[in-house]
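Re: that backbone. Tokens:
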């Protein structure tokens, strides 16, 4: 089974600014509906029968008849198991998580995946795939999710992803008559498929009992990136579905660019959705301008249509070499606040299980039920209109497994860069759901940070550092709950992994957790030194040291050398001075070395003595220019007499700053440090574009241009 990669599946970034300064070691507490950060204590929904849920900080009420629907985007290529083998030797372990898996096709980015579905034992039934799908349906229902929006990647009935969709439809019907599967044709993955093929596949799947239908009996189809086909194409699609297959369709498109296409799609749709962004700066919950997330909801509502709001945790893509700074759980909390503040009708959770983008909320190996349980809280609030009352203490601990700038020891050639928006940060967060005021203490690598927090929901932040991570909540001099992370922070990771991992005290911690019963960090083991080989003769250099390739900022320089009869290590020098603590044969050249002389040498040692081979030094040159991963774009069309801003886009190499060259009819009219300019009346009717120049330390200057537009 192979995973089909989804291309370009992310929303265009908003240029709206929002302060996201981290308050290290300070509790953040915000009343309900304020800033989208946190929830104050709330009341349970009226007239709702509550079921005891000891793994949640609240008692979840019955939500099955609520009209506010929540769907989780399901990727059929990544189910719980791919082969029903033991987790240590199955396809996930051997081929997807290993940098050398699948014949080394993923080695450039250190392996296809970093996380996987929560593991299970081998199932004895031959219908294990269906059983796994039923498990996922039950997991989703437990959080209040109404259905899966399943990604149709391949319309061929013989494709494994298509077969998996049929299993998912059967599983949903087996588990619950109210859990539905909304069909989501992927117009990016199926860009080359014709209308007849897509309609035939959709119709075949739409006839299953679990397929999601509107109250009028029409099949609801929610194509991802629908704007890749014209409105007339979709009109023909609806006609084909009704006339050829007897399945009238209500269209609910998910757009990458709703600001441009919502109005044209509205006449043929019952609602509009958006794939969304994944960082707080591009998800400001209290902004109400027409281009803000809340403003965009209002625009669609003004067209008389429903809005399906994307609510997300994070996004970190190894293969594409990009990531967003989700700021621990802030992006999750802010996107829920947008849904509430904008009065969204439905919710789309991107995603249930896309481990290639680390956006999943399904129970997984690295975050367990953390994100799904948090979704349960905010789904309940969204559906009932009231923040659930906190009835038991619980904390959710999230952090990265490495500092965001840490370089892997595995020779990856694709390194993830920040896509834009919220600046990267190194923080541990405890998201606290507490019945009374308490002290929250986060311990990271043996260093503790404490926050005094009130009852309700609050945040405590601490700096990330190497070592174990834990949190303990004390009240009245006694520890009441806590949890120790199952992941250790490593400042020298094997492969790059910039996702946030998590753990819940109500699932795997509590009063019996080591963080509570023994909060003192365990002593670090003393490393065993590598023994020096015993020999009666000196080591011998078999290959003289040389620096392979061109020494340029951002590249990996390799000290090529070899010796026998001794333990080998390497030393690097800059302008003759030894680089401290670097003894590997590979060195990623930092910007600070530009223009300097980079040298290396091999040192081989045994009990007889040591020998050295010194390579000829090379002058470090400027690195490659930053490249626009997401092209610069206009926030709004330039109009005479108004001030118009430009989004810088998302770039590789993390530029330190930008310069903006404003061009009208091919002539430069301004060079500015700010992305905003007032439009002159002299430019009316002329073609205008902006060249964004990106400056990164030690690199050539990058440049990318917006689309040309006519000044109105």
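Recovered sequence:
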């Amino acid at each position: 089974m192979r995973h089909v990669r989804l291309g370009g599946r992310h929303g265009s970034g908003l240029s709206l600014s929002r302060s996201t300064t981290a308050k290290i070691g300070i509790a953040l507490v915000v009343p309900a509906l304020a800033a989208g950060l946190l929830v104050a204590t709330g009341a349970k929904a009226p007239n709702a029968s509550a079921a005891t849920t000891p793994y949640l900080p609240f008692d979840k009420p019955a939500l099955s008849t609520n009209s506010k629907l929540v769907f989780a985007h399901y990727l059929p290529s990544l189910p719980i198991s791919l082969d029903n083998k033991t987790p240590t030797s199955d396809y996930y372990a051997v081929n997807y998580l290993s940098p050398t898996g699948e014949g080394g096709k993923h080695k450039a980015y250190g392996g296809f995946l970093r996380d996987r579905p929560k593991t299970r034992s081998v199932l004895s039934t031959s219908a294990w795939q269906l059983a796994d799908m039923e498990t996922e349906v039950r997991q989703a229902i437990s959080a209040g999710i109404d259905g899966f929006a399943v990604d149709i990647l391949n319309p061929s009935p013989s494709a494994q992803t298509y077969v998996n969709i049929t299993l998912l439809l059967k599983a949903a019907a087996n588990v619950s008559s109210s859990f539905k599967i909304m069909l989501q044709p992927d117009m990016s993955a199926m860009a080359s498929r014709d209308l007849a093929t897509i309609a035939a596949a959709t119709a075949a799947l739409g006839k299953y009992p679990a397929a999601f239908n509107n109250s009028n009996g029409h099949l609801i189809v929610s194509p991802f990136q629908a704007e890749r086909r014209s409105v007339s194409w979709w009109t023909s699609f609806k006609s084909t579905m009704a006339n050829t297959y007897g399945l009238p369709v209500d269209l609910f498109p998910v757009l990458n660019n709703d600001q441009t296409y919502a109005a044209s799609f509205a006449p043929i749709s019952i609602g509009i959705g958006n794939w969304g962004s994944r960082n707080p700066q591009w998800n400001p919950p209290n902004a109400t301008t027409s281009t803000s997330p809340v403003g965009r909801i209002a625009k669609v509502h003004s067209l008389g249509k429903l809005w399906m709001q994307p609510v997300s945790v994070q996004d970190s893509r190894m293969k594409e070499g990009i990531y967003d700074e989700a700021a621990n759980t802030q992006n999750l909390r802010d996107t829920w606040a947008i849904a509430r503040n904008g009065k969204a009708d439905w919710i789309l959770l991107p995603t249930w299980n896309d481990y290639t983008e680390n956006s999943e909320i399904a129970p997984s190996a690295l975050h367990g039920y953390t994100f799904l349980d948090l979704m349960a809280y905010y789904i309940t609030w969204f559906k009932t209109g009231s923040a659930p009352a906190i009835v038991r203490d619980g904390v959710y601990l999230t952090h990265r497994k490495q500092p965001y700038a840490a370089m892997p020891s595995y020779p990856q050639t694709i390194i993830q860069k920040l896509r834009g928006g919220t600046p990267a940060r190194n923080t541990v967060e405890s998201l606290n759901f507490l019945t009374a005021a308490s002290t929250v203490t986060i311990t990271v690598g043996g260093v503790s940070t404490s926050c005094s927090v009130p009852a309700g929901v609050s945040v405590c932040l601490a700096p990330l550092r190497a070592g174990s991570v834990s949190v303990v909540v004390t009240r009245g001099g006694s520890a009441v709950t806590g949890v120790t992370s199952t992941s250790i922070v490593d400042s020298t990771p094997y492969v790059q992994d910039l996702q946030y991992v998590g753990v819940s005290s109500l699932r795997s911690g509590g009063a019996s957790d080591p963080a509570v019963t023994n909060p003192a960090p365990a002593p670090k083991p003393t490393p065993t030194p590598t023994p020096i080989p015993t020999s009666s003769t000196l080591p011998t250099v078999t290959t003289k040291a040389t620096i392979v390739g061109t020494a340029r900022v951002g590249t990996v320089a390799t000290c090529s050398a070899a010796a026998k009869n001794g333990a080998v290590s390497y030393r690097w020098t800059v302008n003759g001075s030894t680089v401290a603590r670097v003894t590997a044969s590979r060195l990623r050249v930092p910007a600070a070395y530009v223009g300097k002389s980079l040298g290396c040498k091999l040192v081989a040692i045994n009990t007889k003595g040591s020998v050295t081979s010194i390579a000829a030094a090379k002058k470090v040159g400027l690195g490659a220019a930053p490249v626009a991963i997401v092209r610069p774009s206009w926030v709004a069309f330039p109009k005479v007499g108004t001030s118009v801003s430009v989004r810088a886009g998302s770039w590789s190499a993390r530029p330190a700053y930008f310069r903006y060259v404003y061009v009208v009819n091919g002539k430069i009219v301004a060079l500015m440090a700010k992305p905003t300019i007032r439009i002159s009346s002299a430019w009316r009717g002329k073609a205008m574009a902006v060249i964004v120049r990106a400056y990164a330390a030690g690199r050539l200057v990058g440049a990318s241009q917006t689309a040309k537009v006519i000044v109105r």
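The chain has a mean pLDDT of 88. The first strand starts at residue 27 and ends at 28.
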